[in-house]
Amino acid sequence: MRIFNRVNIVWFLFLCLGTMAACLLYVSAFHPQRLPVEARLPKLSGDTPGYINVGATPLGLIFGLIAFGIFIFAGLLGLRKKLVLWRIGTVQLWLRAHIWLTLLTIPLVILHTGFRLGGSMTALLVVLYAIVMVSGIYGLTLQHYLPGLMNERLSTEAVSEQIPFIRAQLREAAEKMRARFAPIEAASDPKSARPSVLTFAEEQPGNRSAHLASTATAIKPVTNAFEAAPLEAGDPTSEAVLVDFIDRQVLPYLRAGDSNRRRLGNPRYSEDIFRMIKLRVAAEYSPHIEEIQAWCDQRRLLDVQTRLQHWLHGWLFIHVPLSYLLIFMTAWHAFVTLFRY
Amino acid sequence: MDEPRRTQKQIAQQYQGNLAYYRKIHLWRFARVLASATAIIGGIAAIFYYQRRGPESFFSAGPISRAHASFGNDCGNCHDARLTAGGPLTPQRFGDIISDRLRHGIPLQSLDAKCETCHEQHTLHEPNVVQNRSCSACHQEHKGAASLQTVANLECAACHADAHVMQASAVKGAQLPASAFQIHPVRPMQLAFELPRPSRGFTNSFASFWSDHPEFQFKRDHARDPNVLRFNHQRHYASDIPLLNGQKLDCISCHKIEEDGLYMRRISFAANCQACHSLQFDPRNPELMLPHGDSDAVRAFLRTLSTQYAELAAKRGLKSNEIQKFVVQELVRLRDTHRSIDDIERDIFFTTNPYKPQQAIPGPTRGSFYGCAVCHEVKPTAAGPLVTKPVLFDRWMTHANFNHAKHASVKCDDCHRATQSRETSDILMPDKASCARCHSPQGKVVAECITCHNYHAPPQLTANASQGRPGSFKQMLLETKKATP
Fold first, then answer.
1. Above pLDDT 70, what percent of chain A?
2. Considering A103, A241, B316, B418, which has the largest number of Cβ atoms within 10 A of its Cβ?
3. Cα A108 from Cα A54, distance rounded (Å)
4. DSSP string for residues in B59-107
5. Do A340 and B81 touch (CB under 8 A)?
6. DSSP letter at A250?
């Protein structure tokens, strides 16, 4: 949801006019002497002039009821998203109305309270409302900036619900490749293989072009790519190096739930290590290494996407439940004040 | 972006085998639904619990005042917790209540009725008020321990700053008898300076005291003190005025604050004048003093001079034969200057300076009688000279309250300007500007309406003042409403 959008100008003007109208009504009802000119506005201060418990006056009640109505409408956004075929405005229109109308509740609620926090119940409501609004505005800000950031940082973006499935595909592909090479005794002893790989890695400087080339292959669908490169009988030493590398680094990385702590999660390290592995194995194994590197790159991108998705939607954990709670509490507040006490 | 994007086909291929993903439970979404459900269910449970068993203080709009602190959390002392609808809440009833609230606001009648169960006889304000006011409008509860008597200017301004309300009030006031307005509190035995009520009453609309509060009525109407006593304040500050008890005469030499610190005690001859203005009748016999306060008594005194001299001689310890001699001697001396008793009487009543002060004689005993007419209006009548009784007012501005004790740091003359007054008819009350010098945002002294004014008439006055009127202002309004078709 882009905030700085031409369509939003109309909504912004609506918000400003709504706020001004509410303030004008408030001042004319409760502080008419502060108006620069005498305005013939409806008297909404009720039968008890000077009674400054604003929420109990007709105008205060009107403000409160409008705000409550907006709360309910805002709560219906979730339902509107579920009912895709519901022909009452587009979801985008609902989202805009959700944002701008709830922003309008800020002056309405403040004027309804008469700038007082009140007692326990009303204070609880105000705090709840403040949390909902702050979380909403925070979410709106994230929704404004994060999509651009994702577009910039993610070359390939997956459907977020498919990410676990794609991760599983990557892991399975790596396991299949590992199974093709196995069993190789040299690879079964990790201690013998690891020092040589690491030492070599430290000796070789990084090569950006090689990384880009390997990443480019990552765009191929995982299973198809692997099946398109069947293994042939080859060099046992190279295979031992590959198996060791897959066992020690690739599979743990692709299997990890939180891959950020793995070394392959670091793109610079990943680039270096794959370049070194390529140098350690025979030339005919290069496509396999590139294949593995593509999986790791894709996994890294998926992780970045997951992280950004969490930021993008994490605030909803606060916003949505408390919004529903706010609606119920507001209804209760209205019931108690209108029909009791 | 230097990395090529995948085609839609490539992307779709990747999802093969998981195309029904949307039917599966998404962990995050599920967690969010769970959190929402928890919030809703928890909220509803809390609502039910608090509505039935929760402490009533939860619904309180704020801490209650010190005056009502004894009520504790028993909201029922003031609030009627029953359903306002008074019966089952049918959709029709629900709609009616909502419609009523949106037109009139939350009703306060039930609260007012509860107030009046304890606060009886609180007759409200002036009878020309046109808008009903709830007790809660001014005495706003649930705002902390502060006194409920502290009423904000805003409450008064709700009517007094509204020109329409004030106009309606003026119209209503014009239809009421003048006696209906006599409810300003004056203590028993006190005399108040009352000016006729203006034709429009006190219905100017204004926002604050310091800005556009009308000038005080006595000032606006150029009222004069009707007292016939001749008194020159300025003269009493003159340097040639003898010291009193070793001190120069000043305001507090005569004007004493009452015990409660509010107003000044009434001036009396015996307490405040006689120390200087002794009624020494005969300079040769300064102990012999004329009676004060009754012209008949003075005349009787003069016609029994032989007895007065005899009593004086007896007081001096003269023997009986010496007394007679003293009386004759003094009467003969009088005859040297006056032809008859009538002549003496005329001198005393009408001459403004029958005896000059005897500067050579010590103060307490010297003859310094200036004559009745120096201070009093004396009229000759067939029955003899008649001294018009002076009228000394105890209260000058009965619409307002004042506390002299709280103004002790201010010089009297700063407000009253007595040192510049030479006429008794000068009303030495401060004008609005004098008060506003301090009682304004510039002066930084509180300038609330209730600093000077009362809204309610005190109960003891209400009973008398409201004769012929309803006992309660609200009751009166209700009756007016009933009468209105």
1. 81
2. A241
3. 11
4. G-SSPPPGGGGGGTT-GGGT---S-TT-S---HHHHHHHHHHHHHH-S-
5. yes
6. I
The helix/strand/coil state of B3 is: coil
Confidence of residue B190 (pLDDT cuts 50, 70, 90): confident
- Per DSSP bridges, beta strands B285-289 and B280-282 are antiparallel
Provide the pLDDT confidence category of residue B470 given band limits of 50, 70 and 90.
very low
Which residues numbered 93-112 in B keep a CB inside 8 Å of some CB on A?
97-98, 101-108
Cβ–Cβ contact B288 with A under 8 A: no
pLDDT value for A198:
35
CB contact under 8 A, B14 and A166: yes
Whether ipTM > 0.90 holds is no
Q: Residue B60 in contact with residue B123, Cβ under 8 Å?
A: no
List Cβ neighbours of B363 (8 Å cut-off, separation of 6 or more): B242
Percent of chain B topping pLDDT 90 = 28
Omega prior to B107 cis, within 30 of 0: no
Annotate A273-300 with DSSP letters as a single string: HHHHHHHHS-GGGHHHHHHHHHHHHHHH
Sign of CA dihedral B35, B41, B44, B46: negative
Interface test with A, best of B101, B112, B151, B160 (most A CBs within 10 A): B101
Q: Are B64 and B142 in contact (CB under 8 A)?
A: yes
Is the Cβ pair A52, B5 closer than 8 Å? no
**A215 to chain B: nearest residue by CA?**
B3
pLDDT at B327: 92
Q: Choose among A278, A291, A163: nearest CA to A224.
A: A291
Cβ of A46 within 8 Å of Cβ of B105? The answer is yes
Q: Quick one: pLDDT at residue A197?
A: 36
- Tokens read off for B365: 């005993």
DSSP string, A198-217: HHHHHHSPP-HHHHHHHHHG
**Which CB contacts under 8 angstroms, 24+ apart, belong to B464-472?**
B465/B123, B465/B182, B465/B183, B466/B123, B466/B183, B468/B179, B468/B180, B469/B127, B469/B180, B471/B121, B471/B123, B472/B116, B472/B121, B472/B122, B472/B123, B472/B124
List of chain B residues whose C-beta atoms are within 8 Å of the C-beta of residue A227 = none
Nearest to A49 among B22, B24, B133 (CB): B133
Whole-prediction pTM: 0.66
Average model confidence (pLDDT) across chain B: 82
Per the listing, tokens 């070789």 go with A204
Nearest residue on chain A to B14, alpha-carbon basis = A221
A154: contact with B, CB 8 A cutoff: no
Alpha helices, DSSP H only, in A31-160? 58-75, 77-82, 91-113, 120-153
Taking only the tens place, the pLDDT of each residue in B117-144 is 888 655 667 888 887 677 887 888 888 8
Chain A touched by B17 (CB under 8 Å): yes
Residues contacting B387, CB < 8 A, separation 6+: B295, B349, B372, B376, B377, B378
CB–CB contact B102 A122 (8 Å): no
For the beta carbon of residue B428, count every other beta carbon within 10 angstroms.
Answer: 16
Residues A191-220: pLDDT tens digits?
A: 443 333 333 333 333 333 333 333 333 334
pLDDT tens, residue by residue, B225-249: 999 998 999 989 988 888 888 888 8
d(CA B55, CA B12): 59
Cα–Cα distances in Å, from B210 out to B136, B165, B409, B449?
A: 27, 21, 21, 11
Alpha carbon distance A220, B315 (integer Å): 140
Tens digit of each residue's pLDDT (9 = 90 or more) over B392-411:
999 998 888 899 999 999 99
Mean per-residue pLDDT, A20-48: 79
